[in-house]
Predict the 3D structure of the following.
Amino acid sequence: MKENLDFLKRVGDEFESAVAYIQDVDEGMVECLKNPITQYITTFPVTMDDGSVSAFRGYRVQHCKMFEPTKGGIRYAPDVDLDMVSALAFEMTLKCLVAGLPFGGAKGGVACNPKELSRCEKDKITRRYTREILSIIGPDKDVPAPDVGTGQREMGLIYDTYASYNPGAPYRSAVVTGKPLHLGGSEGRDKATAQGGAFVLQQAVSSGRSSLASLKGADVIVQGFGNAGFHIANILSSDYESRIIGVSDSKGGTFSKDGLNPIQVAEHKELTGSVTGYRNLPTQDHDELL
């Protein structure tokens, strides 16, 4: 998609703008950082629930191996392609370097619509995709993680598939992060992204970089109500006493000036597949909600 091409170009442009502030920069190193080390593309078959066979395209991009292992999530979405994954891997490198983390950037994904897949079909895609990238992932090579369209279940399947092919590998559970706790996952991992966002928002408010005097009592609209969206809504509501007045997902938005209960909205979405229709509130489009 053209948007993805633009996204990749934007990331490169932002990188070049930042490099301009560095004195005595090594141009060769800059050129290396502008291009990924490894781009892996695979097409694999999966037998669907109705007995038909569908082909899926998967990607794994390792952007930088100055530090190893490389690190980055796996995304399941219809618009996943090589340019999107390459741009996200580039961003992972930059984020790790800025944060001082000894990892290179990576990213992966499968072009599919997880909302149209059964649990069995999604599990099959995950296991087959893992088989395809087995040679390039590992605790010392490349460590995947959850991203849009994936979560603890998929990470557990990646670990299980990797372990079945590498039964004697030391610390093999470290092949992936974001696993369920009973498989060696980390407590707090499911809400870590949202918690970090809440910390940044609180810092912006307390440092005077926001027009808000306090998060307490502030009206909040959350765009996107997956894992990160739900958790930041719940954290702001319960820990900071903000009022969540609107939430949205890919199907539309829900608004109430009296406030929404994030946990109840999440339960409604689990039952219906969307935040729309919660408490029979009118459905709003994204532009109207924001």
